[in-house]
Amino acid sequence: LLMSNNGEAFIQIESGTTLNINSLTGFHDYLIAGADNGIVLIGSEVGLFKQISLELQGNIVSLSANNSVCYGVTDYGEIFHSQDLVNWDILDFNTFYSGYYESCNWTTVVVTEQQVAVAGSSANGRPVLFFSTGGNVWTNRNLDYIDMHGMPAYLTEIPNAMLYDVIKDRFVLACNQGTVMIIPSCSHCNELHNLGTYQNLTAISEQAEMLVVVGEDYYISTTNNF
């Protein structure tokens, strides 16, 4: 792990694991890391990480937290959360919703004060987005939109990262092939944007109402146009 407190010099923090670390989030006074093989690392900027092995089939690929709960997802379709970092509730989404929803592999999770969003791909390779208010009942959100010719279309690129824009009350998906999708509260008002690159987008953040998107091959873009 690398950390900077001044925006310039980075210090290296020993995590205590040789597994791939795929996601980071802050929860209360702790730094939480998600790794392969269902490993959660709990520590701080001074190190001394505690390793927890959850009963997960997949690799932890994304973490997110608000003031009261920490959520994570795996590439095996599992969704897990904890309010105290000791007791963890695990939902095997694909088993629980078998016959109702297609099996899903998650890539990203975002927790807001009102709801939880998870995104990824279904068994047929289509991008998917689900919402929940309490983490137990999940509802599919359609990823359709109106294209530049005024015709109905559907997102085809897999989302790899997501954020919640508090000011505009919307989710933003960063997807493959330089694609960004805006998900507002209105279920019929999705917008699709292309950043003019074919690089797969891998992370997204917001700073002073400016979206910052990064992707493969050191791609980086900033925009406030949508």
| Spans where pLDDT lies below 50 across 5 or more residues | none
Q: Judging from the principal axes of the Cα atoms, what is the shape?
A: globular
The assigned structural class equals mainly beta
**Cα gyration radius (Å):** 17 Å
The CA-CA distance between the termini, in Å, is 33 Å
Strand content: over 45%
Give helix % range: under 10%
Counted by DSSP, the helix tally is: 1
Secondary-structure element pattern, one letter each: EEEEEEEEEEHEEEEEEEEEEEEE
Mean pLDDT: 95
Largest sheet: 4 strands, antiparallel
* Strand order in the largest sheet: 3-4-5-6
Number of beta-strand segments: 23
What does this protein structure show overall?
- The strands form seven sheets. The protein has a four-stranded antiparallel sheet with strand order 3-4-5-6, with no helix packed on it.
- The model has no long low-confidence stretch (mean pLDDT 95).
- The two termini are 33 Å apart.
- It contains one helix and 23 strands.
- By secondary structure, the chain is mainly β.
- 2% of the residues lie in helices and 53% in strands.
- A hairpin with a 4-residue loop joins strand 17 (159-165) and strand 18.
